[in-house]
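Proteins fold reproducibly. Look at a concrete instance:
___
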Amino acid sequence: MNKLVVLSLGNGDLGNGFGAVTAQLWEQSDPNPMKFTGCLPAAPEIPELYRHWQLLYKALYQRLDWCPRIKIQEADVTNVSEVEFSDLCQRLSNSINAWLNSEPFGNINQQLRTHLDQSEEVRFMIETNDNLLRRLPWHLWKFFEDYPKAEVALSAPEYQPPKKSNVQTPGSKVRILAILGNSQGIDTGKDRVFLEQLSDKASTEFLVEPQQDKLNDQLWKQGWDILFFAGHSSSKEKGLLQLNQTDAITLDKLKNALKKAIERGLRLAIFNSCDGLGLVEHLEDLHIPQVIVMREPVPDVVAQEFLRHFLTAFSGGQSLYASVREARERLERLEKQYPCAAWLPVICTNPAAEAMTWPEKGDGRKRDRSLLPKWHCLQTVLLLGVVVTSAIMGVRHLGMLQAWELTAFDQLMRSRPDEGQDPRLLIVTITENDFQLKEQKQRKGSLSDIALVQLLEKLKTLKARTIGLDIYRDYPVDPKQADLAARMQTQENLFAICKVRDREANHPGISPPPNVPKERQGFSDVVKDPDGVLRRHLLAMKPGPTSPCTAPYGLSAQLAFHYLEAEGISANYTPQGDLQVGNVVFKRLQAHTGGYQKVDAWGYQILLNYRSYHHTPLEVAPTVTLAEVLNNQVKPDQVKGRIVLIGVTAESAHDYIPTPYSGRQGFYQEMPGVIMQAQMVSQILSAVKDGRPLLRVWPVWGEILWVWSWSFVGGILVWHCQSRLHLGLAAGAALSILYVVCFGLFTQGIWIPLVPSVLALVVTGSSVVVYATFRTTATVAYTDNFERSPK
């Protein structure tokens, strides 16, 4: 996200300090700025150091016999060493940093560093009319070293938006008016070469050593975007441009023509060699959006190098500020021959005008697809989409995305609307208070024989259709409770649990109640994922011969089968080996199913489609306590014809299982085992009786096609969008649509790839950017080979 900082120094000078300094910070998405205040102390040493630096700079320039683009008066210093000049540069830099790091300025410094990110692009504008402050090399402040995407610009304290006319620029290219003035002793021909290399992106009109009337006429023509000047100017008179070897003109004489050009769209003026800051004073009165000038006399080679690097970066899609910073920093390689070359370029801006970006100009069509010039764009995006999709699906097949996909699965599960409680179920819970009942005094486990026999009698009277005892009872019934033993042996609608031996977990297993026959036993085993969360439903398995529990079906399946048999609905297997109950086929989970990759799909597993009520799966069905049943506080219609599950919910029993739903502090919400059994029973009944969808996935080819389509979307967005803002908005919209589609299908029982699709969109888009950057870099490298004649 781009940000804007405007540092207003207010009244004052370096000799007396600045007592009311303000800094305003704008974020791109928020029109309301933050404002910070402070002050800057007096720093009288800085003006002295700068004037001394300026004298040595000019003297050094004369001694080294640079080829200048600015004619200046003879320097007062005739003898200067490069060592002395380098030491003076360091002293000036240290003084500027000490001044800006002073305690009175600390609040602004700290607040800016707090609210800015080093990865963000920052336009840093300094408001002042003080000529000396404008000439200071502000980029030496360590702040700009710490924020590599920030660039400084100068601004007048007073400004207003430029006036705009309704005249539209014809054509689809940026239009440049290039003035190549008096070239005596310098080579402006290379400036022309650089501009001509932009022929596919810009339409440039060259005026070579023009007469004043011809220049005036061209400025009056409609639609210039950039004004460029290269040639001589003079520091004796502000704003004097030498058009040719005999004629010179001040900007005052071009005032009306420049004003009209600005109204018609002139957004940037580049004076590659002139008394830059003197020119800016005249242009600021016309409210031109941006001007790029040189602070001091500039060697010919430095001016040419800056122009070359700036045009390459700016026309390649970078912002104006980023392009200037890159071009300025690339001048550092010349500083051994041309000291302080990187100190010279500076942006002078109008904060009330938007910064120009190269792709903004056009006739309604996308000029060059922004980042992909000269591409067969569609073919490239298609090819990248295939490569990225293949890579992502390959990584997915190895199971490296499973954790992310299961996290996304949980989010989709939590986001679904409530479905209401299952009216076919009733859960009898045994709470901590139920442990204190008088019927529970002689209990061995969670439920005493006395309490159990009374509970079964109550449920029989209330006409429960099916009863599931989700409590381990691997011990014989008390001989005094012969009635209970008989019930467990003969009561056809009573089912009990056991646990299969698990060698991997080193669990010996738990036997079923001795009096319950095998056909009314159901295992309690569940299949948890590596993070401990239960997302799968284990319907059946083949226990080992040494297991104390040999039940082939889970308790949930046994209860559902018994309930449905009373309605003439039976369970069997299809020729393909899939379990079918009524007309519903329960497709077996495979090792590679949706987000599950290389999963241990032993037994007969399906995905667990949780039912929620009041945004929690804990209320899947009505619940009553053991005490309420024993005390006759349960109405007949709460029990009649239902499946009744009996289990412990007391925390001391430690029978809790994590679910995809969030609990306290964002951790997974844990669910008592009896309620988990109710969820599983409800899934089977709802699928068979209500047509509620079971969770399923697309075939592999469908998932690949889906992921590839979003990969293609990512590439097209980068190709199509002209600016980072538009790209960000479009990408956000695409991701939102992707989530909505995935969520909509999930509510219908279809789990499609969300995380791989997001990755495909982002990676393909990024790949397009990388490719475009590579192309731009190759262009720069090609241009770097352009030989320069020494000056």
User: Anything to note?
Assistant: The chain is about 35% helix and 20% strand. The chain has a mean pLDDT of 87. The first strand starts at residue 3 and ends at 8.
